[in-house]
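Look over what follows to help learners.
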Amino acid sequence: MRWFALIGPCVAAVLTCSAAVPAVAATAEVTSATKLHWELQPSGTDARFRGLAAVSREVAWLGGSKGTVLRTVDGGRSWQDVSPPGAAELQFRDIEAFDARTAVALTIGEGEQSRIYRTSDGGRSWTESFRNTDPKAFYDCVGFFDRRHGLAMSDPVDGKVRVLSTEDGGRSWTVLPSAGMPDALPGEAGFAASGQCLVTSGPRDAWIATGGGAKARVFHTSDRGRTWSVSDTPLASKPTAGVFALAFRDRRTGIAIGGDFENPNTAKDALARTGDGGRGWQVPPQAPAGYRSGATWLPHSLAGVLAVGPSGSDLSLDGGRHWRQFDAGSFDTVDCTPDLSCWAAGEKGRVARLRLG
């Protein structure tokens, strides 16, 4: 299964590789007609999953509508309902997991609907570690640098994006001072669409994606959220459009992806790349065919990127410059693991693993 690391050089107008590479195809053939596809798994629910934490080939967590949290420890052959009690009216939109036992899950919404839960026993019990009491705040995403340090972001409050910080693995949270945060634009906000509007790389760098205002922007911190800079992206922005997901291979190389969720089959001005940590963004020669809400880099690959959305899934093998759609099914979020497993999740209980053949 080392094909993830081998397919990088194999991009072309038709994605073909030599027979020596046990690799993969997007929509074209790669060695003996092998094809890349999502293999659906029975989740046992019709909840919509926008939160996904893929830990390994065997372990993954899902967070979704109707207060639903699921966990698998057998590669998706079976899913356990480990939903926190009393959360049935809440919407889990992001979940971060460290192993089969420990996870932090975020619910979204105005005021007290925005909460953070933590489990350390595989979901048998949960602790509510944060409940928003500010009616002006609306939390969208959460991300971790390591097992102890993490951030959560809210739509702007009093003209600035609000950020929470934890230093104890999500057991407690503190609102960071806003002095180091640039002013928000009128109408600017995050999109709680895939759990990827806040992402991290390494021990100190994090990025926040926005839209809704006059410009779609990306905020960056290199000191775990104390100070931030902000840059404009070429993505279109309006109340239903902007940057929905960020994916960084390292602290310099990343993509910003999104579009307009009211026009899911249109991808004009919906993708940008950066090679300097988000200070500058460039439009690639080609983008996926529609609005995409989730993206991730293939593990151990310098150039492989996956993107998903309601109208399909796409693969790039040259760092996001060119794309080929390989699946037409609907997914909202995607995540890969260091041991070479990729997962996707979305509406109507859809969850899948990436397969060959």
The chain has a mean pLDDT of 91. Residues 52 and 62 are 5 Å apart (CA to CA).
